[in-house]
């Protein structure tokens, strides 16, 4: 029986390593300590012609300057029910999201059956919530204003979590 030399063994083993490698293996990486996953959930219907949209902006390490972070912009048609992951944020970050009816100005209101709701979710927990509908100004809903169109805003500061 022949023996395999050390040199041949060193050449052969790396070549066979592909047999044990799994290309489809999922790797779950936990976020670093002190970080937070931020998402926004948008739910709305009967919004045709209202110019419904979502805008998200963020600032990273705001205590050290205004460093732009992840952003997101989406325009919606008649109906939406979607959750968007904005990213993983550190201990001193700021994320702000707004929903708007671009075609609803100060002198008018959306139809009675139209609504658009926005929630900001941090680490799986719902935080601030706002909504746009025919009564949102009367009900003094959280951070709703005409500027110059109907807009509602939510935000999270990760240093306050």
Q: What secondary-structure arrangement, pairings included, does this model have?
A:
Blueprint: H1 6-16, E1 36-45, E2 52-60, E3 67-68, E4 72-75, E5 80-89, E6 94-105, E7 115-122, E8 125-133, E9 144-146, E10 149-157
Antiparallel strand pairs: 1-5, 1-7, 2-3, 2-4, 2-6, 6-10, 7-8, 9-10
State the helicity in percent bands: under 10%
Radius of gyration: 24 Å
Q: Count the DSSP helices.
A: 1
- Given helix and strand content, the structural type is mainly beta
Helix and strand pattern:
HEEEEEEEEEE
User: How far apart lie the N and C ends?
Assistant: 68 Å
What proportion strand?
Answer: over 45%
In words, what does this structure look like?
By secondary structure, this protein is mostly beta strands. The chain contains one helix and ten strands. Strands 2, 3, 4, 6, 9 and 10 form a six-stranded antiparallel sheet that branches. The model is unreliable at 6-28 (pLDDT under 50).
């Amino acid at each position: 029986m022949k023996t395999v030399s050390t040199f041949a063994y060193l050449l052969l083993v790396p070549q066979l390593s592909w047999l044990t490698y799994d290309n489809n293996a999922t790797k779950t990486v936990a976020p670093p300590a002190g970080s937070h996953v931020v998402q926004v959930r948008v739910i709305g219907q009967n919004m045709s012609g209202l110019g419904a949209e979502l805008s998200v902006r963020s600032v990273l390490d705001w205590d050290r300057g205004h460093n732009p972070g992840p952003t997101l912009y989406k325009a919606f048609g008649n109906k939406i029910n979607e959750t968007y992951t904005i990213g993983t944020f550190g201990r001193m970050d700021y994320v702000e999201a707004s929903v708007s009816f671009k075609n609803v100005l100060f002198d008018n209101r959306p139809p009675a059956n139209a609504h658009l709701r926005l929630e900001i979710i941090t680490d799986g927990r719902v935080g601030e919530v706002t909504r746009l509908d025919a009564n949102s100004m009367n009900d003094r809903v959280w951070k709703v204003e005409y500027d110059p169109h109907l807009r509602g805003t939510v935000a999270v500061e990760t240093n306050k979590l």
